[in-house]
Specification:
CATH topology of the largest domain: Rossmann fold
Strand content: 15-25%
Number of helices: 19
Mean pLDDT: 87
Distance between the termini: 50 Å
Number of strands: 20
CATH class of the largest domain: Alpha Beta
Radius of gyration: 24 Å
Largest sheet: 10 strands, mixed
CATH architecture of the largest domain: 3-Layer(aba) Sandwich
Length: about 525
């Protein structure tokens, strides 16, 4: 870095800004603003965003931009390439989703934005986040990933689609088949680039990039910046802004971390004692292999714990079901491999247990980052065997601190904690509202018993609905025409009106069976 640092204040932090010779900006948060510092509280209303986006942002309970959002949103709105280094839980998805949702043209039928994600779970999570943010702009978001029916994805991509989120292998599969038209892609996001590198996806990413229009905005996000990621950015980005968010209140410092030294064969007993003493409302137990996940899960079941498991050997449908049930609070303990370290965005996971010490330092950060979200307190407990000193030392160096060693809970402590633990175990689970539930309060999804096989088109639906007294095009949300069914979102609390009127109003010359549909379909 060269040049004289300039100081700025945003969101309660003092920022040093260095301007280098190529006019890129490297921004590093130094420390929280003191009492004498003038703090400017940023607001989403300060950005040139449409009323539809601001409405969704408000209902999603985004109060004010995070540090990374405050830097990325205006840069992307100005059509600038940007490289972001920021830790997990910093609000990176909304940072790029908000400006992309603002900039895409609803009238264009071909995809305009592509987000590349390393795992299926993260792709699904990102799709949901972008869909929620763009809900009132009626943006269609598709997720394409492996181990899911290809034909369903092909049919979805044939319809109007604004944003595509996918994993590298499945994106390339669609490109080779000619089922994913990238000719109108104006925004490319490479999310969690360091994970892509670790998983060996860099060559696949380059293959995808070479097939995209050269005139586009490229956004790269990563928790770390290895040399290969830097080289990728230099090769495919144009004068990017570089943003580094070194949070004074980063996850590794905000989360209470402890470790226990334990023989491998005694881990199940320590896990039982720890869960009784800690008595968490919501807990993820991370293991390194699917075999260990199965063993731990079976052990917890024998102890009558409410639990589920997730690992790469399971069918995608099972993994999604387990993930959604965990988010909604159906059970308290989720046993998982690192597939769950990315793609879980739950605000109130109170405890993370590393049953196995992760073999990669980045995995440790991503695991513990599932707790302590959005500046809330969290706790992470790590089991370490006597033969893992080398891996532990590497993690200590990576996070810049030593994880405190703690003595195993005394039998008396466990005994005294047991009644309260058993009471919570027997209690009915407290169900949590689904993400975006507030968005859906004034939206009704309806099912029409006709689809492509009866030559139903979105224009037929729009024409019929706009002829209903009190309805306008602005009250019609996303339309999804399938083979024998059509699903339509009705906005602005007009669902009951439409449902009632369509019982007696023909669509494309015929009365159709119309009913209320599940919002999850």
């Amino acid at each position: 870095m060269t040049g004289v640092p300039r100081w700025s204040r945003i969101l309660g932090y003092r920022l040093s800004m260095y301007f280098n010779s190529s006019a890129d900006i490297i921004i590093i948060a130094i420390k929280p603003a003191g009492r004498d510092d003038e703090v400017m509280e940023a607001n989403f209303n300060d950005y040139p965003l449409s009323s539809e986006l601001l409405k969704a942002i408000g209902l999603l309970d985004f109060t004010s931009p995070t540090q990374v959002q405050a830097q990325v949103i205006p840069a992307v709105l100005k059509q600038r390439d940007i490289i972001v280094r920021s830790q997990t839980g910093s609000g990176k998805t909304a940072a790029y989703a908000i400006p992309i949702c603002e900039l895409v043209d609803w009238e264009e039928n071909k995809p305009q934005a592509l987000v590349i994600a390393p795992t299926r779970e993260l792709a699904i999570q990102v799709k949901e986040d972008i869909f929620n943010i763009g809900r009132f702009k009626r943006l269609k978001v598709s997720a394409i990933y492996g181990k899911a029916p290809l034909m369903i994805q092909i049919k979805e991509l044939k319809q109007k689609t604004h944003v595509v989120v996918g994993t590298p292998g499945r994106i390339i599969d669609h490109l080779e088949r000619g089922t994913f038209d990238t000719s109108q892609i104006k925004y490319l996001v490479i999310d969690e680039a360091d994970k892509m590198l670790n998983m060996g996806f860099i060559e696949q990413i380059e293959t995808i990039i070479t097939g995209l229009p050269k005139e586009r905005v490229t956004i790269v996000l990563s928790a770390t910046m290895p040399k290969d990621i830097i080289l990728l950015c230099e090769k495919y980005m144009k004068g990017p802004i570089r943003v580094e968010i070194e949070e004074p209140d980063s996850a590794s410092h905000r989360i209470s971390q402890v470790r226990y030294t334990i023989d491998r064969n005694d881990k199940p007993n320590l896990l039982r004692d720890i869960t009784i003493v800690e008595n968490p409302d919501s807990c993820i137990i991370f293991c390194n292999t699917k075999q260990t996940v199965d063993q731990v899960y079976q052990g917890l079941q024998k102890l009558k714990y409410t639990c589920e498991k997730i690992h790469g050997g399971m069918e995608q449908r099972e993994r999604l079901r387990a993930m959604n049930d965990f988010k909604q609070g159906s059970f308290r303990y989720l046993v998982a491999t690192d597939v769950a370290a990315r793609g879980i965005d739950i605000e109130d996971i109170s405890l993370v247990i590393n049953y196995d010490l992760p073999l990669e330092c980045e995995s440790y950060i991503h695991r513990i980052g599932r707790t302590g979200r959005k500046n809330r307190p969290g706790k992470a407990i790590t089991f370490v065997t006597p033969y893992e000193d080398k891996f532990l030392a590497a993690i200590h160096q990576y996070i810049g601190q030593e994880i405190p060693l703690q003595e195993r809970p005394e039998p008396e402590t466990v005994h005294h904690s047991k009644p309260e633990f058993e009471e919570k175990t027997k209690a009915a689970p407290e169900m949590k509202a689904a993400k975006g539930a507030q968005l859906s309060k004034e939206i009704m999804k309806i099912h029409i018993n006709a689809g492509k096989k009866t030559k139903m088109r979105p224009v037929d639906i729009v024409g019929t609905l706009c002829n209903i007294n009190g309805m306008t095009a602005a009250d019609i949300g996303i339309i999804n025409v399938r083979d024998i069914s059509t699903f339509v979102e009705i906005l602005n609390n007009k669902g009951e009106l439409v449902l009632r009127e369509l019982q007696k109003t023909p669509i494309k010359g015929r009365l159709r069976k119309v009913s209320k549909a599940d919002m999850q379909i």
